[in-house]
Each structure stands twice: as structure tokens, then as C-alpha cells.
Amino acid sequence: MTLRRHGIRDTRVLQAMEETPREMFVEAAFRDQAWADTALPIACGQTISQPYIVAYMTEQLEVTPTSRVLEVGTGSGYQAAVLARLARRVYTIERHRDLLEQAKRRFAALRLSNIETRVGDGHRGWPEAAPFDRIIVTAAAAHPPAALLDQLAEDGVMVIPLDAGAMHQELVRIRRTPGGFSRERLIPVRFVPMLKGVGRRGKRG
Q: How far, in whole angstroms, is CA 93 from its chain's centroid?
């Protein structure tokens, strides 16, 4: 893997990536491409992000061993599995029940016992478990959802892809400070859109 060559420096993130077998999280038809640095299609019209983007977002999130992390958009479960090796507990929400059930089986196979899962609308977050030290969103939104900002702890960090004009998105890091929120633009990205509501069971798209 070329993560170091592409600028990933956090040794904990690098180790978590190395210990998480991406081939377990891709569709069988694409397993030979599991470690290619590219996004790949998964069920329900979603994608698994390229390894570099997973590593970059994780590094920018600044996860510590005591962090409680909320992930919006479980997808294949790959990002959550990486985070689970770095954080105290990961809470992950997915709107497609079929995807979440597949991810839960992968978490069990990897004996990742510090992941809590929920089918739901990611715009609403997980209020009963809030506040969260870190929040990561793996789908692009027009604006940071108000509920997620509310659920971010003071001194907390959120990493989220945001729309930045026609056909453009950028990754943004938001910090909650005593005076409000600060925002830092990171890199251009391409993610599926963040949709409201819960997907129908068995629907591919």
C-alpha cells in the first residue's frame, strides 16, 4: 500500500489500516481489486472508499484511544472497522438495513466488539449516545446537519464531505470551540449524496 508515500503519517492510522483486511468488505466480483487505491461498488448503490481516503479522513479526525466516535454511513463497514482499532467505542448508522447486516457479520468475524450499530437517518445522529468526541460522515451533504453539530462534544472534531458548487465536493474539518464552530477546508473528494430517511429493505439504490 502507498499510504505513506501519499502523506499519511499517523502510525496508529497506518497500523489500523494494515490490520483491517479490505478484501472482507468488498463484493466478491471485485475481490482481486481489494487493495487497489480506488473506490469500488457495493450493494444498494453505495461504494467503499479508496484506502487513501479512508486513511486520510481517519487521520484528519484525530481519534484517540478514549474517543467515542459517531460514523454516519456504515456502508460496507470498512471505515468503522478501521476506527474501532483506534477508538474506545464506535457508533455507526446506516440507512440500508441490508448493508448494515452484512457489516455486522464482518465486525463479528473480526471480533470487533466495540462497535454499536443502528439503522436510521444519519441526519438525526444518535442523540441517546451523544455527545461524541468525533463524528465522521461518509456521504456528501449540502451543509453539516444541525443535529450532528449539536451532538459534537466541546473540543470535538467532525470530518464531513460538503457540496462545493456544481459537481464539486470538498472534505471539511469542523471543530467545536467554546465560542462556536471553526471550519477548515481539506481536499476535493467525491462521495455519494447524504439522503434523508431509511432505505427500503432489499432495494439496490
A: 10
3 state DSSP class of 185: strand
Distance from C-alpha of 205 to C-alpha of 194, rounded to nearest angstrom: 13
Cβ atoms of residues 186 and 60 within 8 Å: yes
Residues involved in catalysis: 49
Q: What DSSP character marks residue 143?
A: S
Q: Is residue 136 included in any domain, yes or no? A: yes
pTM of the full predicted structure? Answer: 0.92
Query: Using one digit for the tens of pLDDT, what is the confidence trace for 85-124?
Result: 999 999 999 999 999 999 999 999 999 999 999 999 999 9
Round to whole Å and give the CA distance between 171 and 147.
Answer: 19
| Total domains in the fold of the chain | 1
Which set of grid coordinates corresponds to residue 154? 466541546
C-alpha distance across the termini of the chain, in Å:
31
Q: Is residue 202 part of a domain?
A: no
The secondary element (H helix, E strand) that includes residue 160 is strand 152-163
- Residues 6 or more apart whose Cβ sits within 8 Å of residue 201: 97, 98
Q: Could you count the other beta carbons within 10 Å of the beta carbon of residue 184? A: 12
Instruction: Please name the amino acid found at residue 179.
Output: G
* CATH number of the domain encompassing residue 21: 3.40.50.150
Burial class (CB in 10 A: 0-12, 13-18, 19+), 128: exposed
